[in-house]
Write a structure and sequence with these properties.
By secondary structure, the protein is α/β, with parallel strands linked by helices. The chain has 4 helices and 6 strands; from the N terminus they run E-H-E-E-H-E-H-E-H-E. The chain has a 6-stranded parallel beta sheet, sandwiched between helices. Helix 4 links the parallel strand 5 and strand 6. The longest helix has 14 residues.
Length: 136
């Protein structure tokens, strides 16, 4: 855990397999993870991060949540808007807070707030992944 720093990390990587590999490396020694908009858990590829004891997914779509928990990727699913969820969390609530392919769907102000809230809620690292990078 000492290698993880309390920083906002942005991974810009178009290949999902490389994303899955990088995510596993980043969370390897963590105990808790919150995946915002993670739904079915597709970002994790075919490997479940079982070393992470608490794996919470927050998404607005029930079908994806059911898949993510049913496949064992997540230990808990919360059907809620990600900003509403983040605002209700205490500081340092999860070792890692992750948002893959979410920020590009938000208005600029909401995306900035999501990043700020992720940083506050993450005890060690907040990760934002966007498949196309940042487009201005």
């Amino acid at each position: 855990m000492t290698l993880l720093k309390r920083v906002l990390t942005t991974i810009v990587e178009p290949k999902h397999l490389q994303l899955s590999y990088r995510l596993h490396k980043l969370v390897d020694s963590c105990e808790s993870l919150c995946d915002l908009g993670g739904g079915s858990g597709a970002a994790w590829g075919d490997q479940i991060p079982k070393n992470v004891k608490t794996r919470v997914v927050v998404d607005r779509y029930q079908a994806g949540l059911d898949m993510g928990v049913g496949s064992g990727v997540y230990t808990q699913a919360i059907k809620q808007d990600v900003l509403t969820f983040l605002r209700a969390q205490g500081a340092d609530s999860f070792d890692v807070v992750l948002a893959t392919s979410v920020i590009e769907h938000l208005p600029t102000e909401a995306g900035a707030e999501m990043a700020t809230e992720m940083k506050r809620v993450a005890k060690h690292i907040a990760i934002i992944y966007t498949p196309n990078g940042f487009i201005v």
